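## tool: complex_structure
## caller: assistant
## args:
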Amino acid sequence: MGNLLKKALEFISTSSHSRTVSIIVILVIAAAIPLTVITSQKQQEIRQRAADIIPTPPIVPVGGNCGAFGCDGPNLRVDWERNSLAYYGYTVRLYKAGTSTPACLGITNPCTGSGQTVNTSFTFTGLSPGSYYDLYVFVSASPSNIFWKYYAKLGPTGACTGGFCSSPPTPTPIPTSRPTPTPIPTQGAKECFGGCYGLTSCVGCDRYNTNCNTTTGACTAQGSLNKANDPTCGTSCAPQTPTSTPTPIPWSLSAPVVSGSNVTFNFSPASNGNVGIHVIFNPDTGIAAWDSGPIPSGRTSIAWNGAPPGNYSSALVFATTTLAGPRNFTVSGTNPTLTPTPRVNPTPTTPPGVTATPTPTRTVTPTPTPTPTIPAGNTVFALTIGLDGLGSTGDNANPGNSSGSNKNPKRPSRNIKIEVFVGSGESKANKSGTLTYQTGSGKFTGNVDMGTLASGNYNVKVKSDGYLKRLVPGIQNVTFPSETIGRTYNVPAVNLVAGDINGDNAINILDYNILISCSVFSTDNHGACNGASIANSQYAVLSDLDDNGAVNQFDYNLFIRELSVQNGE
Amino acid sequence: MSRRTLILIIVLIGITAVLLAIALTPKQAPAPVRQKPTSSISYAQTILRISNNPTAVNSTSSATPTYSTEVTITTGNNMVNAVQLELAFDASHLYNVDIKPGQLFQNSAELLKKVDNQKGTISYAIASPLGQKGVSGIGIVAVITFQEKGNPGELARINFLPKTLVTALGTDKSVLKTAVGATFPIAGTLPSSPPQNTGSPSGQPVYSR
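## result:
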């Protein structure tokens, strides 16, 4: 061995050999550089391909209207309802928040609950009041993937502070006793499911679940399960102290003051931040005409500007409880005031998505595509459309419950197509226009030029992309008593059913397949969503049924609830 | 510097330049990995069929027997992830009709179930569990159960309606190629010759796309 080294050194030290060896070394080094570059590029390529091939696990961040709620003290109950994971089988695990320590000691059901049963409950017991817990839900089909995750805050025994949030309900400490009526804190409020969080009212109740009994403070339920006065939750909620219940307040609502299209509602005493004005049509069509939302504390009046003509009934409400009213009123003066230039004026310079504040001289709300001017003498249809899952519109399963609907849609402008027929089925007009979301009423409104449509009795159908075509109930007697106030006909408000993603005026598994492909649950790498079809460029947009910017479990659940309405009219 | 050294240096520089050029040359984008929709030429390869031979599921001497028949699927190359059955049946001969999921999808999601025993219609949709890919092959989509009324030997029918759909991964269209309904004699009596359910002149239970 030593001899070999000695000979190698002698060989290298020879002047001619050392030069050769040096060159070989340099050659090796020089070759190594690009080879290294090539190798690293190939490895990166392999990683990239692997990332493309492996479908993204269906991890859904948080939230969902699965209808879970908990109650207080050492016990925590979890309910699963239909239209949620119950379809797929699931596993539920509870951990101390931020740890991997199971917190299932003393659970009355198995620590790890699983099953497919609709309306199943799991109760975790032996927990620490006041502590935070993480509730994980796994899809049985993919047990390694967290489907939903909730944070649970347990209040002290006997206080109604439980519930689930999609984010930790603090950093600010949650009061452990009910404070006097104060404005509802925004933190965590809308994301919480059930429970009262030490407030005077339940906030963020989803479409299926809890409301707060304003008298007792008990968590009550509404919706499909009809769990009113739920024994587990109700008995755990602390009775209200007299000072914290709004019911003793002698609320009163004066007759609304109507001035043109502006309506002012006066009430007393001053708002505590939790009351609001709710307006319905008279006679009631089952669709809210306008809702003020919570009126800021201290105010004794609120105005509804730009009210369409019609007969209405108003009430002062707290959640679903009527505090004062009803008060009936009529609005008659909202037709566009004819000016020397009797045209509806678009304002193309206004940014898209801005909702207009109606004024006595109505102008068309700005939209991304400027609304064409309507020639004088043409018939105008004034439309108020509710879109399921958005604003103040519920869904097919619960038309009147909009608590789970998205109040801030990403796309405030929607197209609308209007077909007008006579009794024999002969088409008289086929027009399209744009509707704009009104944050106050939670409806989409707009005027559509119907051309020179003559007065008469018509059947009217409306359709918007992503929704089923709907026949406006009743025969529309399109007449104009006085041409001086314009030829605007107020089409009765209707709601449209969501889910017609492929635009065939039917809701079926074709739409389901597209929705799943466009969603976070896609298993075809969004193949059906982004496939070769020319007509599908809007699939991803239209699959976002609740228009919150993501296609996820909310859209899935809404689709399932809409599916029973299979065909448009 | 010797001539040999100079040649070696030039060769070295040349090799280095070639290797660097290979490394730095922008490569053509790799073929997209996205699963392409199946070819429009023959993407619809799925066949649905209702069995012509109902079997008694609880036959007691006193009770009216309940029969069941299976809706089977042959997917071809389609990776089926949902099936919507729109069926019409003879309400004059079949009653207490119900439908349940078959074994095609494990833990299937029942999206829609409407059985109208008055009108004689069934709307039934099931899908593979969320997060699971579709299935291919042959399997049982659903099982229809019913009781029979009428004179023995009279024919009862369960037909597919055109709104029947089958969806598969990677395509936004229905992949249903053919749906074959069933015609069978009621009261469990076997016909002298089994009724044909494909290609019959009447063609009533059969439709293709």
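## assistant note: The helical segments of chain B are 3-24. The mean pLDDT of chain B is 78. Handing back to user.
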